[in-house]
């Protein structure tokens, strides 16, 4: 069963638990892969720091986790 990530999950945790999320991170122009801050930033933090739409990023990450991402 696929999980829904919690609001306090870090970007590193999300990518570690669901490697499919890495593609979404890269598609959004984030460089979280290998970044030392990824173990501290939540999706909300990353969206704010990179001026992204948090709802869209969260939705895209969840779709990847669930295996329903297109692209």
UniProtKB/TrEMBL annotation:
It holds the Pfam family DUF1858. Residues 8-57 form the DUF1858 domain. NCBIfam families: prismane_assoc. This is DUF1858 domain-containing protein. The lineage of its organism: Bacteria, Pseudomonadati, Pseudomonadota, Alphaproteobacteria, Hyphomicrobiales.
